[in-house]
């Protein structure tokens, strides 16, 4: 690759739509260009990096024994109707029509197609297990495309699927994928954590995510300080405490609580006017009831009341994670008015519940039988005190919607507490079970000649997302610093000066390295391009080894620099090719 001819224009300034470093640098260094919101073009350097990632993913999938195939991206509607996902995906997919008006979609993920192809070709337990994968472009009309390739509307995913007859077989397939993912992500070279996940729109049971640990990520995960528990915050399940005795709790009573718009003001007033005998009231003694509207995939709406301790908030992502594919919207004033019994600001269990207003009332798992709460009295300016669960009200069920806080007890061990950090999902493995096989009628004959439904696993890797994720962990103030296996080239040679002899030497060195199969970017630009500009470009582009053929040539040496550490050494011109090859081969 000669810089004089390479299709690249580096930029001095950050693009103004880029919020995260990887996005800024990939655009500035000439790896990608935006084509439309969440849709990007790979330029030559970017394509090289992308292909390196793809190659690593493919090698590890092949090594585990999975077989590659490729489906179209343009898919018929019918299989997605059979699994109900045509509807469940809502606005999340791109739908198109052909000239006859028939519906198609651009595949957001391919469970249906894989299930059908196995059904098409296989019929016996002897054919199983089989592991199939593809590396392919997916389309999702993300509500908030962001951070360049990190959350695109067009992106590349490696998706694989396992097909087994037995549950034990599925476990083995799942574990094989887990092991292959560890190898893949170790090679790709970013910091990650494996966390417990919710299964999301796909249903199924056992599910883990591989999150790249990044502050710019949209996922929050928690880890226990004492045990190996790690979970996406969406998947944290709060252990319900045991039921509590309440014989001593006084009968519930409604009291005047004017001017208490916030939990803090309510607690202050309680302590002033209605003090407890044992200790002061705290925010966690209050029960706050939040009303939302659920929007089902078919468009119908339904109200839901969520009760959580007053010292916590509803975590929208946790709530949505529980309810997917149902969407959650705040209740509008107008919707609220259709429930005349509801008194805004003083909503309590007195009116909530399927038996009462018909609004389903679900509560945080900590709100167990015998616990005692201060909550809305369903009368303006009044709260109900000493409301005991099981005595004064009974919720319709529980829901994991309250925010998880640093310091919360670990759900897995007795001693530890949780601490949170941010990440972004790079891979997801989950046991789908028989949901898709049932919906699409994928059965095989077992040993006894009986038809049995196949059980499946589904496993994804964000191949295009890996490029910005790796870039996030491998850059400095000057530009990108790619790991060697990912870099667009092995060495970046800069001819720094005007002298013809210098260009000749650089040209010769490039040729010698290229002859050994080493990928070279050679900055052969002559004329007005100063050495300073060339060095800046080399640092920005981020190839791991930068070689300067410049002033030193008069003394018979070239300079070899490690992009990441900045360490420099002079090497005799005659030995330069061999020495650089040795560095590159480690
Ligand atoms: P996320 O939680 O980030 O939205 P997801 O749960 O929707 O991801 P899956 O359906 O499990 O993702 O897809 C498998 C992998 O594809 C993800 O682990 C992620 O690496 C990648 N991926 C998903 N959505 C996108 C996107 N919009 N842009 C780039 N990569 C994506
Ligand atoms: Mg996922």
TrEMBL record:
Name assigned to this protein: Proline--tRNA ligase
EC number: 6.1.1.15
Similarity comment: family membership: Belongs to the class-II aminoacyl-tRNA synthetase family. ProS type 1 subfamily.
SUPFAM superfamilies with a match to the protein in the record: Class II aaRS ABD-related, Class II aaRS and biotin synthetases, YbaK/ProRS associated domain
Principal location: cytoplasm
GO terms assigned for molecular function: ligase activity
Keywords: Aminoacyl-tRNA synthetase, ATP-binding, Cytoplasm, Ligase, Nucleotide-binding, Protein biosynthesis
Top EC class of this enzyme: ligase
Subunit-structure text: Homodimer.
Signal sequence interval, chain numbering: none
Organism: Nocardioides phosphati
HAMAP family with a match to the protein in the record: Pro_tRNA_synth_type1
InterPro entries for this protein: aa-tRNA-synt_IIb (IPR002314), aa-tRNA-synth_II (IPR006195), aa-tRNA-synth_II/BPL/LPL (IPR045864), Anticodon-bd (IPR004154), Anticodon-bd_dom_sf (IPR036621), Pro-tRNA-ligase_IIa (IPR002316), Pro-tRNA-synth_IIa_bac-type (IPR004500), Pro-tRNA-Synthase_IIa_type1 (IPR023717)
CDD domains assigned to the protein according to its UniProt record, in alphabetical order: ProRS_anticodon_short, ProRS_core_prok
PANTHER family according to UniProt: MITOCHONDRIAL RIBOSOME PROTEIN L39/PROLYL-TRNA LIGASE FAMILY MEMBER, PROLINE--TRNA LIGASE
Nucleotide-binding recorded as keyword: yes
Domain Aminoacyl-transfer RNA synthetases class-II family profile: 33-483
């Amino acid at each position: 690759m000669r810089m004089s001819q390479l299709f690249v224009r580096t930029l001095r300034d950050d693009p103004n739509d880029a919020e995260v470093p990887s996005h800024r640098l990939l655009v500035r260094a000439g790896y990608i260009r935006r084509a439309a919101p969440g849709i990007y073009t790979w330029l030559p350097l970017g394509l090289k990096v992308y292909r390196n990632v793809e190659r690593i993913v493919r090698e590890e999938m092949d090594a585990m024994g999975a077989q590659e195939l490729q489906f179209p991206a343009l898919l018929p509607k019918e299989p997605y109707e059979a699994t109900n996902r045509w509807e469940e995906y809502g606005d999340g997919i791109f739908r198109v029509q052909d000239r006859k008006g028939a519906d198609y979609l651009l595949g957001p993920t391919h469970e249906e197609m894989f299930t059908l192809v196995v059904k098409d070709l296989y019929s016996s337990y002897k054919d199983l297990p089989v592991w199939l994968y593809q590396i392919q472009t997916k389309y999702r009309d993300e509500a908030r495309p962001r951070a360049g390739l990190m959350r695109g509307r067009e992106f590349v995913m490696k998706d694989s699927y396992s097909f087994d007859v037995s549950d034990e077989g599925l476990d083995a397939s799942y574990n094989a994928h887990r092991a292959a993912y560890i190898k893949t992500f170790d090679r790709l070279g970013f910091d990650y954590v494996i966390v417990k996940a919710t299964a999301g729109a796909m249903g199924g049971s056992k599910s883990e995510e591989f999150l790249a640990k990044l502050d710019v990520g949209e996922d929050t995960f928690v880890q226990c300080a004492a045990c190996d528990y790690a979970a996406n915050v969406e998947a944290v399940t709060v252990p319900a405490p045991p039921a509590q005795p309440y014989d001593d709790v006084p009968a519930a009573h409604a009291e005047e609580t004017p001017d208490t718009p916030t939990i803090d003001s309510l607690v202050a007033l309680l302590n002033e006017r209605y003090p407890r005998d044992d200790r002061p009231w705290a925010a966690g003694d209050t029960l706050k009831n939040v009303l939302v509207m659920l929007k089902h995939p078919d468009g119908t709406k339904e109200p839901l009341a969520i009760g959580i301790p007053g010292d916590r908030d509803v975590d929208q992502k946790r709530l949505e994670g529980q309810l997917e594919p149902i969407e959650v919207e705040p209740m509008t004033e107008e919707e609220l008015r259709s429930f005349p019994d509801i008194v805004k600001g003083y909503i309590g269990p007195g009116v909530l519940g399927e038996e009462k207003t018909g609004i389903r009332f679900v509560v945080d798992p900590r709100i167990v039988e015998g616990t005692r709460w201060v909550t809305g009295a369903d009368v303006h300016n009044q709260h109900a005190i000493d409301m005991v669960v099981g005595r004064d009200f009974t919720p319709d069920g529980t829901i994991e919607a309250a925010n998880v806080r640093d310091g919360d007890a670990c759900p897995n061990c007795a001693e530890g507490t949780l601490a949170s950090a941010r990440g972004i999902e790079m891979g997801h493995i989950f046991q789908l079970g028989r949901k898709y096989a049932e919906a699409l009628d994928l059965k095989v004959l077992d040993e006894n000649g009986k038809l049995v439904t196949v059980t499946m696993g589904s496993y994804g890797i964000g191949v295009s997302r890996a490029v910005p994720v790796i870039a996030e962990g491998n850059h400095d103030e000057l530009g990108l610093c790619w790991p060697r296996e990912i870099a667009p080239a092995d060495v970046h040679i800069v001819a720094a000066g005007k002298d013809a002899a210098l260009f000749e030497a650089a040209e010769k060195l490039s040729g010698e390295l290229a002859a050994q199969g080493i990928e070279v970017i050679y900055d052969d630009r002559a004329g007005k391009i100063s050495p300073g500009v060339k060095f800046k470009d080399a640092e920005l582009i981020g190839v791991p080894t930068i070689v300067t053929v410049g002033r030193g040539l008069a003394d018979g040496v070239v300079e070899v620099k490690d992009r990441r550490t900045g360490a420099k050494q002079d090497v005799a011109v005659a030995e330069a090719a061999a020495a650089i090859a040795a560095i590159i081969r480690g």
